[in-house]
Design brief:
353 residues, binds nicotinamide-adenine-dinucleotide, alpha/beta, Rossmann fold, binds 2'deoxy-thymidine-5'-diphospho-alpha-D-glucose, 43% helix, 12 helices, disordered C terminus
Length: 353
């Protein structure tokens, strides 16, 4: 197979590329990435010389370039992860999210349709797999309800609205043109190589520097956390064995209130740094809440477990321990991706209370 992975230089994409390059030496893996602030080829330095790995810098919104790559490599499968992914950035610049997440996905779909329909076998043996988020379902109350594959879409942020729109376009290409598509909606990922604007790497980096930890609102919002390598394994399983035109939810059955997770994180970082217990607790700083902040996400991934046999492999405490160890052992990676502009962005967006 010749598989195009978009956004392969980003956080989740780099784990998917690494898994496929190592596990499937007979596949050609083509990583198409624009290398925005979130894309970093250092995430893939360990596999960049493999014969079955190819990188091409391109924008998914550029139809001609995308079409040429599809035909140059005779692409048979697409795993689409490229996106603008950070909710806070979407609040500041929604147009960037509409451009990449909506128009970029539509451009990729149309280029794939045109290329595959030009071949004698058309869609036979082809697959367009779109990676989406649980945020399209909106927010849950503080009870025991879960997002299922049948939960109504109800996005609240420009990010989740743009992902919802892209999901609808993917399904429309199946229903209208017969393209073999799959959509998955996953919960919050954590692990190595995540850009330190997202909660876990941002807070590890700030604890390391003794800087304030900006907790939005009262820290009561709940997220369902999944180790990124478990998500990559789920993507592998679904890409190969998932049913066309189906949706699968992917989650960790692992809900945490932000403030509770932050305390676990502080404990773990302090332990790794040899600090006394509770040393960095004073860094917790409650700040103005994120506008439209979704209260709670929680995924029901029973369908994926029952139909395809996937389940998370890692307990959260072990995943957090591995994650903290990775960031503390790779300070150069953190320093390289943390720019002055990025810090300025946070200073202007949220005011300390
Ligand atoms: P990320 O921001 O770390 O990486 C995104 C990648 O896409 C980067 O390498 C970036 O350079 C690339 N990219 C951005 N715009 C592009 C464009 N126009 N053309 C080509 N490449 C472009 O994102 P992530 O956290 O790894 O998320 C990957 C995907 O998974 C996204 O679609 C996201 O919506 C989805 N997702 C993320 C999470 C999570 O917790 N991070 C959870 C569920 C779903
Ligand atoms: O649910 C899946 C989604 O998870 C993905 O689709 C997104 O791409 C990904 O960014 C993530 O979105 P969140 O908004 O949930 O993640 P984030 O790490 O930004 O925030 C996690 C929680 O922590 C959220 O309730 C907001 C809060 N938070 C975040 C930051 C960055 C803080 O309290 N302080 C912070 O500084």
């Amino acid at each position: 197979m010749n598989i195009l992975i978009t956004g392969g230089a980003g956080f989740i994409g780099s784990h998917v590329v690494r898994l496929f390059v190592k596990k499937y030496p007979t596949y050609n893996i083509i990583n198409l990435d624009k290398l925005t602030y979130a894309g970093n080829l250092a995430n893939l330095s360990d596999i960049e010389d493999n014969n079955n790995y190819h990188f091409t810098r391109a924008d998914i919104c550029d139809y001609d370039t995308v079409y040429n790559i599809l035909s140059q490599y005779n692409i048979t499968g697409i795993i689409h992860l490229a996106a603008e992914s950070h909710v806070d950035r979407s609040i500041r610049d929604p147009f960037a999210f509409a451009r990449t997440n909506v128009m970029g996905t539509l451009t990729l779909l149309q280029a794939a349709r045109t290329y595959w329909e030009s071949l004698p076998e058309r869609y036979d043996g082809k697959r367009f797999y779109h990676i989406s988020t649980d945020e399209v379902y909106g927010a849950l109350p503080f009870d025991d309800t879960l997002f299922t594959e049948n939960t109504r879409y109800n996005p609240h942020s420009p990010y989740s609205a743009s992902k919802a729109a892209s999901d609808h376009f993917v399904r429309a290409y199946h229903d209208t043109y017969g393209m073999p598509t799959i959509v998955t909606n996953c919960s919050n990922n954590y692990g190595p190589y995540q850009f330190p604007e997202k909660l876990i790497p941002l807070f590890i980096n700030n604890i390391r520097h003794g800087k304030p930890l900006p907790v939005y609102g009262k820290g009561e919002n709940v997220r369902d956390w999944l180790f990124v390598e478990d998500h990559a394994r789920a993507i592998d399983t679904i890409f190969h064995n998932g049913t066309i035109n189906e949706t699968y939810n992917i989650g960790g059955f692992n809900e945490w209130r932000n403030i509770d997770l932050i305390k676990v994180l502080i404990d773990t970082v302090d332990r790794h740094l040899g600090n006394p217990a509770g040393h960095s607790l004073h860094l917790i700083t409650y700040v103005t809440d994120r506008p439209g902040h979704d209260l709670r996400y929680a995924i029901d991934s029973t369908k994926l477990r029952d139909e395809l046999g996937w389940q998370p492999s890692l307990q959260f405490e072990e995943g957090i321990d591995r994650t903290v160890a990775w960031y503390l052992n790779n300070p150069q990676w953190l320093d390289n991706v943390t720019s002055g502009e990025y810090l300025h962005y946070y200073e202007t967006m949220y005011n300390n209370r």
